[in-house]
């Protein structure tokens, strides 16, 4: 239970206040409860993004959207690199699919920015092996599985906060990430639609970050294994293709 | 409905209070008295079902969560919202029954046609749709019909109509689950929102694969489509495409009846239940 109160958001505090009004808690009880909630909320809100990324248990909405926009920046950075090196990386057959995926990820990035999300970092350590023939679609399968899970976390959190539009936006993005996952499997000659429900194996956003770090990614710092830093920038036209449905509805 | 219009929006408010109480040292008896008062308030606002839902949510096991969700689906704090949610899950389970019925027929007819190359993908899609059907039944959904009028054009010569049909159908199914996400979120049911999101992602995968099988760019969207904002709009779109739900449809075709799919039209898939 104490773990759950640590996840309380400002919206939760307001709801708690209304609940206490309705329950008729005496003054002392009410003050104790609200003070405790307020302190927890303040801690969650004050956490610097870098610190928030490292915290495995926090699920504040700000942390979720900041992590999501960071992941989208990472995706654009990696996909742009893959498209540019398509022949060397052995992904030429699917380059148009990769351009479309890149366009979608960049649209997600921009939509999240408009919602107030701020990337935790735009400088990523990417292992060199991620660009070697035979590796890119394995990498994408792992990454897209985590991204789908991240948007399931987001939809759950937005719904719990009473933000139905944001929950739907997360559903719209998560569905597109699921498409990318199926296509990454297809490109490896695996059964692409191998699941009945998208996997919700990780239930907190810090867990998603930790999983990416275990795969070798570094967020603003060196990651595991041989690699180098890549800086996010808006993708050039050559790394994109025209897609539809470019904003959430 | 705004957050301020009801003191108690859902069982999650009781969970919130319960969490706060558990984390805060209080005089003996205070916690029990407050939760009793909260439960009584919720009961008055939403009926016994909402209270059962609140208790199920607090116990937090997956099966109790499903039971709680099913209960709340029929009795929420707002009768109109409960009706809407019931309508959504009944329509969804009907659409899943339609999908299983159609895919089973396509797979059986695919031998020797260009569709045969994708038979394994279709078997996996069929298994997923049937798992959705069963999960929705478990949530208390009831099919509006299990007898469907399916236009002949959905099959076509050499099954040429299959992938164009699936593109239309899966686009509508994704849209339907986005409607569900929105309605469940408005009702404060974050667990149902996630289940709907888990299904929507799978339907979106089927859409991409139908496009790929049809020789089109499979991932042509940045955001999954939400062009229809009501579940009745989804039904109307399927009817305009020629489908009949327990009645003749608008295009030449025939009736087919839903039945649990046989093994030969399925393949093993993962993640067969929502989390």
Task: Characterize the structure shown.
The complex is a heterodimer of chains A (249) and B (275). With 249 residues, chain A is mainly alpha-helical. Chain A folds into two domains: 45 residues; 191 residues, Ferritin (Up-down Bundle). Helix content of chain A is 61%, strand content 5%. In chain A, α5 packs antiparallel against α7. The longest helix of chain A has 25 residues. The relative contact order of chain A is 0.16. Chain B is mostly helical. Chain B folds into two domains: 72 residues, no CATH class; 185 residues, Ferritin (Up-down Bundle), CATH 1.20.1260.10. In chain B, strands 2-1-3 form a three-stranded antiparallel sheet, with helices on one face. At the A-B interface, α1, α2, α3, α7 and α8 of A face α1, α2, α6, α7 and α8 of B.
Topology:
The complex is a heterodimer of chains A (249) and B (275).
Chain A: H1 2-5, H2 10-23, H3 27-46, H4 49-54, H5 61-84, H6 86-89, H7 95-114, E1 123-127, H8 136-160, H9 164-187, H10 205-214, E2 218-219, E3 227-231
Helix pairs in contact in A: 2-3, 5-7, 5-8, 7-9, 8-9, 8-10
Chain B: H1 11-22, H2 30-46, H3 48-59, H4 62-74, H5 79-109, H6 119-138, E1 147-151, H7 162-186, H8 190-213, H9 231-240, E2 244-245, E3 253-257
Antiparallel strand pairs in B: 1-2, 1-3
Helix pairs in contact in B: 1-2, 1-3, 2-3, 3-4, 5-6, 5-7, 6-8, 7-8, 7-9
Summarize the structure.
The complex is a heterodimer of chains A (249) and B (275). Chain A is mainly alpha-helical and 249 residues long. Chain A has helices at residues 2-5, 10-23, 27-46, 49-54, 61-84, 86-89, 95-114, 136-160, 164-187, 205-214; strands spanning 123-127, 218-219, 227-231.
């Amino acid at each position: 239970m104490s773990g759950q109160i640590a996840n309380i958001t400002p919206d939760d505090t307001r709801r708690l206040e209304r609940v206490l009004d309705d329950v008729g808690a005496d003054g002392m009880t009410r003050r104790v409860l609200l003070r405790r909630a307020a302190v927890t909320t303040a801690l969650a809100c004050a956490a610097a993004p870098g610190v928030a990324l490292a915290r495995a248990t926090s699920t504040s909405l700000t942390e979720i959207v900041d992590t999501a926009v960071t992941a989208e920046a990472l995706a654009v950075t990696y996909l742009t690199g893959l498209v540019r090196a398509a022949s060397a990386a052995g992904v030429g057959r699917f380059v148009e699919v990769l351009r479309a995926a890149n366009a979608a990820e960049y649209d997600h990035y921009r939509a999240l920015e408009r919602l107030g999300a701020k990337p935790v970092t735009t400088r990523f350590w990417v292992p060199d092996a991620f660009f070697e023939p035979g590796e890119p679609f394995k990498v994408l399968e792992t990454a897209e599985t985590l991204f789908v899970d991240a948007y399931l976390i987001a939809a759950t959190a937005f719904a719990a906060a009473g933000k139905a539009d944001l929950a739907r936006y997360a559903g719209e993005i998560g569905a597109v990430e699921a498409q990318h996952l199926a296509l990454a499997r297809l490109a490896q000659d695996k059964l692409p639609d191998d699941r009945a429900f998208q996997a919700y194996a990780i239930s907190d956003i810090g867990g998603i970050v930790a999983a990416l770090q275990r795969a070798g990614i570094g967020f603003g710092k060196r990651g595991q294994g041989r690699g180098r830093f890549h800086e996010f920038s808006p993708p050039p036209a050559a790394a994109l293709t025209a897609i539809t449905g470019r904003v959430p509805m | 409905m705004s957050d301020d219009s009801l003191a108690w929006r859902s069982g999650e408010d009781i969970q919130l209070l319960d969490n706060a109480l558990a984390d805060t040292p209080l005089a003996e008896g205070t916690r029990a008295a407050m939760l009793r008062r909260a439960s009584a308030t919720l009961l008055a606002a939403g009926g016994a079902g909402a209270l059962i839902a609140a208790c199920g949510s607090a116990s937090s096991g997956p099966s109790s969560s499903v039971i709680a969700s099913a209960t709340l689906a029929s009795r929420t704090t707002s009768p109109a919202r409960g009706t809407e949610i019931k309508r959504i899950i009944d329509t969804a389970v009907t659409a899943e029954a339609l999908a299983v019925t159609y895919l089973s027929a396509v797979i059986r007819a695919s031998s020797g046609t260009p569709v045969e190359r994708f038979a394994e993908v279709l078997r996996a899609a069929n298994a997923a749709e049937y798992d959705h059907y069963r999960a929705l039944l478990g949530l208390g959904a009831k099919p509006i019909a299990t007898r469907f009028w399916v236009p002949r054009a959905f099959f076509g010569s050499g099954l040429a109509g299959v992938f164009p049909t699936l593109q239309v159908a899966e686009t509508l199914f994704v849209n339907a689950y986005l409607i569900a996400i929105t309605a469940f979120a408005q009702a404060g049911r974050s667990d149902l929102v996630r289940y709907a999101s888990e299904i929507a992602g799978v339907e979106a995968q089927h859409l991409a694969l139908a496009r790929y099988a049809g020789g089109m760019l499979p991932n042509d969207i940045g955001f999954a489509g939400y062009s229809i904002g009501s579940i009745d709009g989804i039904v109307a779109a399927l009817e305009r495409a020629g489908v009949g739900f327990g009645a003749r449809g608008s295009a030449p075709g025939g009736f087919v009846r839903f039945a649990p799919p046989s093994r030969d039209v399925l393949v093993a898939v993962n993640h067969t239940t929502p989390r």
